[in-house]
Amino acid sequence: xxxxxxxxVALLDDEIRIRRDVADEPGPSLVSTVRYHVGPDRLxxxxxxxxxxxxxxxxxxxxxTIRPGRGVDERVMGAQVERIFxxxxxxxxxxxxxxxxxxxxxxxxxxxxxxxxxxRLGDGxxxxxxxxxxxxxxxxxxxxxxxxxxxxxxxxxxxxxxDVALTGRFVYRRxxxxxxxxPRDTLRSLHRSEDDDRVFCFxxxxxxxxxxxxxxxxxxxxxxxxxxxxxxx
Length: 233
Hints:
7-stranded mixed beta sheet, alpha+beta, about 230 residues, 15 strands, 5-stranded antiparallel beta sheet
């Protein structure tokens, strides 16, 4: 069974370098980090484990699933995982499960208006553009000051998300006045924390973190229903 750890992976000098942040694990420890060097002859299995950019590395001695540690750039680690898979295909007989590597990259795209503002454009505009109407399904206000603090603890970065909105076709967010959206049908997975916070993943690497709230959230319910419908097909 694989052990979930935080840390970092990289490909260097024809081997996988793994840094395991033992200090983030429960229980006492005499060291803060443990490092592993895995050559092609010691590698048994690789798996790109959701959510991006996690990777499972099974060797003849260890079985670790590594998530980015504090301060590790997810984009850098994701690129390293891609390099590791390419290297393993050429240099090792290890089995490989590409996982999230098979998914398309679906970035946030710029949007001109917020969904509630679209409703105020007038019925005439929609009548002249058949099929353009994308009604608002649910809306969620941005993080409270306490939630911003928890996001900072979880990600190491300040939260800039102001609001999130769900329509029939898109998920919108507004960050520092910039409106962006991602197609709703590109939602691929949901990951929950021990505190019931949710990370929704779109395509390969686009994430939306929504902290748990005491009251039911129609937006969260809508996205979870999308996944249930997709998995039930």
